[in-house]
Design goal:
Elements: H1 9-30, H2 36-56, H3 61-83, H4 86-103, H5 106-113
Helix pairs in contact: 1-2, 2-3, 3-4
């Protein structure tokens, strides 16, 4: 049997934030999709998912990217609900994703782990 990895308090908090953020997002999608209340709930979900990304900070790149994508989609949904403009939605989504990738240091992590990747 594999030895279980101990989670720190911050990682545990991150996984709890991930669970809460996903629950809020599901609630936002099924309770008045397209309404301003749904947009507000999705904004809250995106903020909580951003906190989850910060506290989990997994060494697994796909996990970090999925969390960033989920959070970015939440911010984009909120923007679209309030502006009804695709241009501003796309601009904000790109800016949020770029900011989160820069802020959470994924670029440096990719460079550090690049030597461990298999080369074809």
């Amino acid at each position: 049997m594999k030895r279980l990895r101990q989670l720190t308090f911050l990682q545990s908090f991150g996984y709890l934030a991930l669970l809460v953020g996903l629950l809020i997002a599901v609630y936002a999608l099924f309770n008045g999709l397209g309404s301003r209340a749904s947009g507000d709930n999705m904004f809250g979900s995106a903020v909580v998912l951003t906190l989850a990304t910060a506290f989990i900070h997994s060494k697994n790149l796909p996990v970090n990217l999925v969390l960033i994508i989920l959070s970015t989609l939440g911010f984009a949904y909120f923007t679209f609900i309030y502006t009804q403009a695709w241009l501003w939605t796309i601009v904000l989504a790109v800016l949020v994703a770029a900011f989160m990738i820069y802020f959470f240091g994924l670029r440096g992590e990719v460079r550090r782990n690049q030597s461990d990747w298999f080369h074809f």
